[in-house]
Amino acid sequence: MTSPIPTLSLVDTDPAELAVDAIVIGVHSVNGDGAGGDGGSLLLASGAESIVAAFDGQLTGTLALLGATGAPGEVTKLATLGTITAPVVAAVGLGPEPTGAAPPPETLRRASGASVRALAGTGTVALSLPLPDDEDAPAALRAVAEGALLGAYRFTGYKTKPQPGRRAPVSAVVVHVPDAAEAAAEAEVARAAVVARAVAQTRDWVNTPPNELRPPRFADAVAEAGRAAGLDVEVLDEEALREGGFGGILAVGLGSSAPPRLVRLSYTPAGAGRHVALVGKGITFDTGGFSIKPAQGMWEMKSDMAGAAAVTATMLAVAALRPAVAVTAYVPMAENMASATAYRPGDVVTMRNGKRVEVLNTDAEGRMILGDAMALACENGCDYLFETSTLTGGQVVALGKRVAGVMGTPELCDRVKAAGEQVGEPAWPMPLPEDVRKGMDSDVADISQVNAGMDRAGHMLQGGVFLREFVSDDVSWAHIDIAGPSYHSGEPTGYWAKGGTGVPVRTLLALIDDVAAAG
């Protein structure tokens, strides 16, 4: 069951007269004495004009006295004492005032999320943030709406007693716009609600304890959600996987008493000219197998199915948004355990496409299950293949915890980067050097699972090079490594809660829209 998100609506009433529990306005930081008017170091953003007037020019000065600096994401709350209808005004920092433009959409998205999270315990919150009145208006409104809904997310958890001082998330959000009846604005709000539900579902699955979401149970949950959304669903159990020659998925699942699965979800609109395949890694828990991981932090390996969760939730959003392109998701699931039946270093595994892989590191299990699923996607036919996975620690070393690594067809990798920039999920294209492939030559099989000498140089690239072996030459593909961005272990920030982030659901949806628009 997905964590609830607030209701979302539009309003064009004077912000100072809105009958809400709190209203959010934007504030910019400025430099120089007196540059911010009465506050000296602050400048209220557009959208707050009537509220500034109601405070008779004292608002920025009061906010400054309360410590507001206008730093991005900083939230300062002030009791209005009857000055306006709402009892609380919250000023959220937007950073320096942009020159000749509204703040970038991602700045608005993070500000909206931070403010709604800070107002937990409040019933209805209105957002009166700066929105441009030009061609950038839809993107800005989408950002504000998405940020608000995602910032309110909270995983319900498993505590048996109420937590003292824990306040309920905001239950309703209204966004102030010039015209609340405008069809384009209403469409953006409706889309934001669908996308937020998909991201929340991804987060919920990622945050679920691994004993509650082993492969058969995860497969059942995915199948149930897919059927409820109207998607075509097929689940391959261990016997069907064996008959189908899915050696990689079976090998990884050998060590667990919970057998592996492969779930296919399909959306096929009438007259669709293009076909997009999505593949997501579904390792419900990763001990590393016999190449066991260090104990410290291993519990976070419950998130090793974030790619599968994102791909599945993307399909649920696709079913609701109904783009003019066919989309099929392939979701391989396994639990990587060490036991008397587990696969071993030195094993040779025959994959779905017939290639034989020498296993050198059982902790490089994700590429094994993905190779099978990607081969099947290509067999069934697709024009574009997007695969996403928490594949390598090398991604975090190279690009950090917010920027995904992208490998594959160069033109498609550039499109992934552009989509990520558009939605606030940055990604960076990486190469697939031939010397990395040469280092994976095996003496006994077609390819080694990792570098044959166990050299970890270019570790992230090794994963991409391996996956390339399972993509047909006529298919444009992109591998999106989200080892860092898929899980946030720090304190909440912007519209990210602690735990699963939902990356890259919004990127995948933007890419699907891009393919549909191209015809």
From TrEMBL:
<comment type="similarity">
    <text>Belongs to the peptidase M17 family.</text>
</comment>
<protein>
    <recommendedName>
        <fullName>Probable cytosol aminopeptidase</fullName>
        <ecNumber>3.4.11.1</ecNumber>
        <ecNumber>3.4.11.10</ecNumber>
    </recommendedName>
</protein>
<feature type="binding site">
    <location>
        <position position="286"/>
    </location>
    <ligand>
        <name>Mn(2+) 1</name>
    </ligand>
</feature>
<dbReference type="GO" id="GO:0005737">
    <property type="term" value="C:cytoplasm"/>
</dbReference>
<feature type="active site">
    <location>
        <position position="293"/>
    </location>
</feature>
<dbReference type="InterPro" id="IPR023042">
    <property type="entry name" value="Peptidase_M17_leu_NH2_pept"/>
</dbReference>
<dbReference type="InterPro" id="IPR043472">
    <property type="entry name" value="Macro_dom-like"/>
</dbReference>
<keyword id="KW-0963">Cytoplasm</keyword>
<keyword id="KW-0031">Aminopeptidase</keyword>
<feature type="domain" description="Cytosol aminopeptidase">
    <location>
        <begin position="361"/>
        <end position="368"/>
    </location>
</feature>
<keyword id="KW-0464">Manganese</keyword>
<dbReference type="InterPro" id="IPR011356">
    <property type="entry name" value="Leucine_aapep/pepB"/>
</dbReference>
<feature type="binding site">
    <location>
        <position position="365"/>
    </location>
    <ligand>
        <name>Mn(2+) 2</name>
    </ligand>
</feature>
<dbReference type="Pfam" id="PF00883">
    <property type="entry name" value="Peptidase_M17"/>
</dbReference>
<feature type="binding site">
    <location>
        <position position="286"/>
    </location>
    <ligand>
        <name>Mn(2+) 2</name>
    </ligand>
</feature>
<keyword id="KW-0378">Hydrolase</keyword>
<dbReference type="InterPro" id="IPR008283">
    <property type="entry name" value="Peptidase_M17_N"/>
</dbReference>
<feature type="binding site">
    <location>
        <position position="281"/>
    </location>
    <ligand>
        <name>Mn(2+) 2</name>
    </ligand>
</feature>
<dbReference type="GO" id="GO:0030145">
    <property type="term" value="F:manganese ion binding"/>
</dbReference>
<feature type="active site">
    <location>
        <position position="367"/>
    </location>
</feature>
<feature type="binding site">
    <location>
        <position position="365"/>
    </location>
    <ligand>
        <name>Mn(2+) 1</name>
    </ligand>
</feature>
<keyword id="KW-0645">Protease</keyword>
<dbReference type="GO" id="GO:0006508">
    <property type="term" value="P:proteolysis"/>
</dbReference>
<comment type="function">
    <text>Presumably involved in the processing and regular turnover of intracellular proteins. Catalyzes the removal of unsubstituted N-terminal amino acids from various peptides.</text>
</comment>
<dbReference type="InterPro" id="IPR000819">
    <property type="entry name" value="Peptidase_M17_C"/>
</dbReference>
<keyword id="KW-0479">Metal-binding</keyword>
<dbReference type="Pfam" id="PF02789">
    <property type="entry name" value="Peptidase_M17_N"/>
</dbReference>
<feature type="binding site">
    <location>
        <position position="304"/>
    </location>
    <ligand>
        <name>Mn(2+) 2</name>
    </ligand>
</feature>
<feature type="binding site">
    <location>
        <position position="363"/>
    </location>
    <ligand>
        <name>Mn(2+) 1</name>
    </ligand>
</feature>
<dbReference type="GO" id="GO:0070006">
    <property type="term" value="F:metalloaminopeptidase activity"/>
</dbReference>
